[in-house]
Predict the 3D structure of the following.
Amino acid sequence: MNLDMIEDENAGAVGSALIKVISLFFIGIMIIAFTANPISVGTSEGQRAPDVEGKFYNGSGWSEFNFGSYFNTSWEEGDINGQWVAIEFMDTDCPYCVKSAEEYGEYADYFSVNNPNWDGAHVNFMASATELSIQGHDSTRSEIEAFRDKSAGEDCAGSDCSSRPGPVHNFPYIDDLDQDNMAEWGIPGTPNYFLIQPDGIIAWSSSENTNEEISDAIFRLVPRAGA
Amino acid sequence: MSSNLILAIYLIPTLIGFFIVSPWGNLLTSSLKQRFPSLETTRGQLLGGLKLISLAGFAVSAQTLWISSKISEGGSFCSTNETFSCDDLLGNSELNVDPIFGLSWGLIGMAVNALLLFIVFVLQQERNHPLAERLINMGLLTTGVGILVIGLLVSYEIQEQRICLYCTTAHIANIAALVGFFRLKKVYDNNSEWNK
């Protein structure tokens, strides 16, 4: 059998250049891979919490919410001085959110540096209030205010907001009526809770721990002076 | 090592490369011609400058990818000043990736500069390679599209009211490479100049 060899005398330049460039590229990638350990943004435990955007109500008025200001990326595990974040994704017309408002408010008061009975790191509580796309769940900022302040004149899940269980909440409520934060966080339903470390990493989520209450997660995860 | 010193390691070769590929490049290369004979021709001078620019562009892009990764871990790198803070931009998970595929800008920069280096290596070895014209056009097109990307990234800087000097160095490298490929194209079109 007679085989005719076809030679490309210019292939050497391309091949040699390709080897050099691919080697350089992989050396660069390998250096980055060995010296950095990137953490992705997401809502699973161990991921960096996505942003929460919108206006928030703190009892006196609505202003721009800065979620990033709650975190300190240089926080180290075990440091009791770092402040943790507990966030609830809720709807003021969701019956279970109304029911759990009492406990959530009590937790906010308990896991605070102002409570002498709590010797752990301070936990900042907050709620992101949405309007679920379900009939009868129409909501407004006035309704969010009424839910937080327990003021009369607005309807929360079929009853006047002033009659919801528990005390007035002292933590901020973020307006997520457009469901942007819900979508960003991939929240399947309300209420949904997350506990976030002072460095912005999600430590616990109710959807991954269906058998544990957020209060138990705080006792288990948040560092305490006596521990 | 301070972040400013690291920045200088990328910025200085980028600026030297920019000067070499500029019309005034002869002023710098004339004293180096004896040591580096390839700089005797305009083609050699442009390819040498482009190699320096692409290497610096590749390295600074890799550095930005590394900074993004470190910030995602919770570290900080260059957030010393209110305005000149690359951490706020490179650490922003929405702005540090391209809006279509979600690829890190640093990784894209590495790939683009690797492509430019490939073009330079081929042309340095075989100036009359059958793909030479196509490769020069590819370099011109890639760095031209890079100008649009720079526009987008600068708009992010304006929006965030922050300046990322590492990103700016990568942008300068792209502009310098565009100038280099533009001049290389002109030299290629002048057959006698190209084959000197």
Notes: The interface with chain A takes residues 58-59, 62, 65-66, 68-76, 93-94, 110-111, 114-115, 117-118, 121-122, 125-126, 129-131 of chain B (CB under 8 Å). The first helix of chain B runs from residue 3 to 21. Chain B has eight helices and no strands. Chain B has one domain: 3-194.
